[in-house]
Amino acid sequence: xxxxxxxxxxxxxxxxxxxxxxxxxxxxxxxxxxNLYRALSRDPSRRAHLQIGLGNQTPLHSPTWSWSVAxxxxxxDQMPGQKVEAAFSExxxxxxxxxxxxxxxxxxxxxxxxxxxVRPYNVSPASVTQVGLRRLPRRxxxxxxxxxxxxxxxxxxxxxxxxxxxxxxxxVLTRLSIxxxxxxxxxxxxxxxVGDVKLYQDWFVxxxxxxxxxxxKSRVAIRRRMVRALIRTAEAVxxxxxxxxxxxxxxxxxxxxxxxxxxxxxxxxxxxTEEEWNGLNPALRSTDPLQNL
Length: 293
Prior knowledge:
- By secondary structure, the protein is of the alpha/beta class.
- It is 40% helix and 16% strand.
- It contains seven helices and seven strands; from the N terminus they run βαβββαββαααβαα.
- The chain is globular and about 70 Å long.
């Protein structure tokens, strides 16, 4: 019997986190995985191929659409005799947004106008001089501090003028029975994009009917999804299912990912069910508040 050489496969996980906007489930994942596959396909020697694990076969991007545990994977030849398989998964949080109502619209405007009053860092960032030397942070001068406040006020005022202008134009055009679809969508676009920043910054406890966020701040529910995804991915590495993993985060998703990565190990029980906590790897199940995830 003639033996057959099995090519070793290095399996990595890629956890993608989307940014602001009306992101549908797996939409950002498709973009990242598709770009990787197209780039690898340009080199025939890579022998790249794409595999999708379809779940319940519901229509693409429908509200109930789902894939299996590894929604998509891209496999290619890294070097002679070695393959790499990248299994993609996603942290989706766009559905935790709140619908726009009259009250929330006013809250949104007031939040934007309050930007000049936020507490700034009273130090300059570290910078690199022209000769290549690093300049350490220093305290801002009074003039620099005033300049920061003026810039924030200008941005807030510009935002308010744009929002009011769009609303006024929509009212006038509606009375004249004139429709300009891009203008009609502009208000919702501002809310969906800038509103996501407000959603993650809000200090108000939610009282709507979203069971994942009720009784807590929105960012806690978003961070919970990110922390749980990190734990599942780290567990896959520990058990040998993955050889390692990477996080691809975009826009506000970078803040979500960074916050979860820097979360203290002693805080993990807040994000997990009792069953998940009891089944957690003892190396991660720490009660030391200084133990990082």
